[in-house]
Structure formats: C-alpha cells, structure tokens
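Sharing a chain and its predicted structure for anyone who wants a worked example. Both blocks are below, sequence first, tokens second.
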Amino acid sequence: MRCEKLFSVIENLNDEYIKIWEDVCNIESQTKDKADVDAVCDYFVKLAKKHGWDIEKLELETAGSPVCITMNPDAKNASVIFSGHADTVHPKGLFGYPPVKINDGKIYGPGVQDCKGGIVSAFMAMDALKRVGFDARPVKLIIQTDEETSSKTSGKKTVEFMCEKSKGAAAFLNGEGFGDDNSVVLIRKGIVRYRMNVTGKAAHSSKCYEGVNAVAEAAYKILELEKMKDKDGLTCNCGVIEGGTVANSVAEKCSFLVDIRFANEEQFEKAKETVYSVAEKSYIAGSKCEVVEISVRPSMPFSETNLSLYNKMAEICEQNGMPKLNWKSANGGSDAAYITQLGVPCVDDVGVRGGRIHSKEEFAYISSLAESAKRNAAIAYCL
C-alpha cells in the first residue's frame, strides 16, 4: 500500500509540529516535578480535544498522571499504539532560558530526543492519518510520566496503566530515539538499582587505626562490583557515593548507588547474587553493609513476535521508498520490555534522530521529525 498522500500531509504539517516540539521541550519536566510533567501531558490533551479524540488519564499523587489518547476508538480491528514518556532527567535551568535552542538543522534542549520528540512525531502521525480519512483501526498514543525512574515514582502504576491500554494491540511502537544507523531496537537490557549502606566505626583521624572507615570499605566493594563490564552481559556502574563528615574523622557511614544492566533472567539472578555476596563480605573487619533495592526494570529479550512486527515494518518502509530499516540490540532499559512481556508485538526506538541524551548537549535533527512521523503513520496505515 502506497502512502504518497499521507506523506504529503505530513510535509505540510512539518512547520506546525516543529513549533509544538519546541513548546513541549520548553516545559522542563524532570520526573520528580509532577506539575511540570503534567503540564506536558496537558499540552497534548488540549491538542487531542481539538481533534475530538478520546482521552483517558490516570490521576496520580506521587508522579505525573499518564494519558492515553485514542482516535477511531470504535474501529473493530486491533489497535496500533504509539508511546513515549514526558519526563526527563534534566534539572530545571540546566539548559538556560529558554531551554530550547534551534541552530544549524538541530534542536537542543531537555527531552528533545528522549523522549518528547517521539511523542510529537507520534501525534503528528495521528494528525496526518485523520486528515487522510484513516479509520480502519484505533490508533493510540500513551504518554508515560516516570520512565526515567523505572516507574518507581508511581510505584509501577504508570506501567500498569500502559499495559492495560495495550492489551490485544496489533503493534506497539515506542518512541525512544531513532539511530543514525536507521535501526529500530528489538532487544534491550533490564536495569536493577541498589543503594548499599556501609557502616563502620567513627574515630579521630589521628587514631584512625581505632576506627573502621566506611568510605574505605565502600571503595573495596565498588571496585569488586565494577568488575562487571561485559558489553553483552552484566555491566555495573557505581556512579554516586556519599560518606563521611569531616577530613579529620574516620567515616562511620557511607552509601553508594549501584546500576546494573542485565540481558535476561539468568543474568539478573547472577547480579543479585553478586551484590549480596559483596555486601556480606567485610573487606575491613568490623564493617557492615545493608542492601536496599531501589528499582528494577525487566529486560527485553529477543522475541519472534517482535521480529515479525519488525519484518512487516521493514516491508512497509521498502514499499514506500523509505530507507532500509534495520534492527539492533541496545544496553539501555525501556518500557518496551513490559509490553514484550505481555506478548504484544513491540518495536522500540521509532522516535527522532539525535544524540547526547541525558546531558546538557542533548539534541535532535529537525529533519527527523517528519521522517519519524512518515514511518510511524505508514506502519499504522498499512499494517
């Protein structure tokens, strides 16, 4: 099925949606700032109301309230679902004011690629589908609100909402950033995070031999955990540490955060075993360590169901003159893992192209907004 008319509509919408992209990224929305995350969702809710689309919202107190927007809710065929998250990791002010800058074919700002660009692309695709009269199946846009904390902020309620709205879907396309290698993602690692609280014994630094240095004990544990550095297997990063009070006192307490990535359940169990083994061992006599699991997100292992969806997508792209679509694996976590667990056909990274996510240099290519919208709209139209 050819999509020339659909693509022409998207090209005509491009300037309007670049402005929308700029608007929503100027709303700084770190996960913990519920009001700001809600403001991003409400922006899209207002747009959806103008189209007359159905809107469902899960009201939450501890996290932004996720939203499901549906066009063609009464259509009989299985739905196509787009998804993305409105929250970012960036604290307010990191990018200056205004947060968004556009220069030399790129847009810079908080969440321009991860993941507001993917949401804007999906909404643009839905707008175009409506304008060409597409009514064969429901098309949904689910906006997640605490993805960056593995949904810990909501106690997984956002994930439950997303999964409930995705049951029985023909396809779930997650709008994380698209790669320069023209690849979507079919395999992702899971993430488990721990806080390790080390306790020692305080003493004056002149008599440090009478104390038990919790910072030193933490250092031994960190070095042991950091041995997990297998690109295709377990990886560990201990990126935050807090301990001690003053330079002339032996530190009584120290805590550090552990971020471990795993490819499957076997590796997950191995990671847990390693963490608790390291915690139990005292490298310095007299020290103790408590382990607190902060959050866990499942892996997205290879799935024939997901591969089948990818194959259909690749065929649609080829039929419509788009670049050859490839697939790859990625080490970062994603909500697509939960959808894969449901058995719903799922492909990740269908958003906009860019780079430097989670940094103050985050950017996306302006041209990739229409590229992404065309690809997503064609898949919904032709599936």
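Comments welcome. The domain at 4-188+300-382 is CATH 3.40.630.10 (Aminopeptidase).
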